[in-house]
Amino acid sequence: MKLLIDKPTDTLQRPLRDLRISVTDRCNFRCIYCMPKHLFGPDHAFLERAQILSFEEIARAVHLFASLGVSKIRITGGEPLIRKDLEKLINMISQVDNINDISLTTNGALLTQQKADSLVAAGVNRLTLSLDALDDECFKQINDVKFPVSRVLDAIDIAKQAGLSPVKVNMVVIKDVNVDQILPMVEYFRHKDVILRFIEFMDVGSTNQWQYDKVFNAKSIIELINNHYPIEPVTANYQGEVAKRWRYKDGGGEIGIIASVSQPFCGSCHRARLSAEGKLYTCLFANTGYDLRELIRSRANDQVILDKLHAIWSKREDRYSQLRGEHDAAKEKIEMSYIGG
Ligand code: SAM
Ligand code: SF4
Ligand code: SF4
Fold this sequence. Notes:
CATH topology: TIM Barrel
Strand order of the largest sheet: 7-8-9-6-5-4-3-2-1-10-11-12
Structural class: alpha/beta
CATH architecture: Alpha-Beta Barrel
Number of domains: 1
Strand content: 15-25%
Largest sheet: 12 strands, mixed
Shape: globular
Order of helices and strands: EHEHEHEHHEHEHEEEEEEHHHH
Distance between the termini: 36 Å
Number of strands: 12
Bound molecules: S-adenosylmethionine, iron/sulfur cluster
Radius of gyration: 19 Å
Helix content: 25-40%
Oligomer: single chain
CATH class: Alpha Beta
């Protein structure tokens, strides 16, 4: 049966282009800003295997999203490399028509050379690693599982060896936690074919004790770097690029700033998110998601699911970051480790 497909735009005329897929809600780190230990301890109820979408279910969802306009997929988590045989899923996704970009965000702890090579062979073409400090004590205090910096640096080299150059490195900047690590990170990654990206600390979820005064904003980050290593803006690669691009004037390479708090980019947000248990979210700051798993497992045919997805996107009004401050601060939001970054 031929499917009737028309690509939706939302109420703010934003098309659907990217899908972030969280493949697990579990993680081997307990980053203080994401999965604080006192809330994600031994008694925490993570999702059971049967609750999590299978690779076949994810691949089917990707196929349907692709026909609605999605061309970019990011695999995330929790820690995505915890999910066994992830390369099988990548391989399935890479065969879907219209999907031309598959990226992965990881903390790097489980990235061996063999794993990196097999992910690339399966179709991953971009990799982002997260590292919030170059100082071991500071990083261990953030990841809260005593994970050393050296092993993330090794993972970055492994990713490059696998041919994923330039690798991106995400650093979440939090006042009184790691602002003093900005310059050491800059110094280490300049001239190394690594794009260091500074992320403003976001009020995702309800457990990370976010406060506005803990945000070290993009303007301050740029000033600090520019005072030591002069930088200039670079034009965006494409409309809707999340990170604002800058480059060192001396040819030391590029950096990115993700200013979701101080300079929201909702106007060009073309992203949907699928949680590990198959809930669909149209905003990182949503408090409810649509149960796509139930629809998929109900044996609904592709047309029925497509119509539902089309209707959800067409009604989308989200622009949380632009409206931040007008919201009720007590409102429950979905956790980052559940929905993916
Ligand atoms: N575990 C993987 C990792 O850390 O790379 C993938 C999932 S993690 C949720 C994705 C990204 O979100 C990471 O770079 C992480 O630093 C970032 N992140 C998590 N919580 C955040 C917050 N509250 N504000 C800004 N970025 C955050
Ligand atoms: Fe795990 Fe990534 Fe969250 Fe850190 S940021 S706790 S590594 S999911
Ligand atoms: Fe997109 Fe929501 Fe973030 Fe705005 S707040 S950029 S709509 S995810």
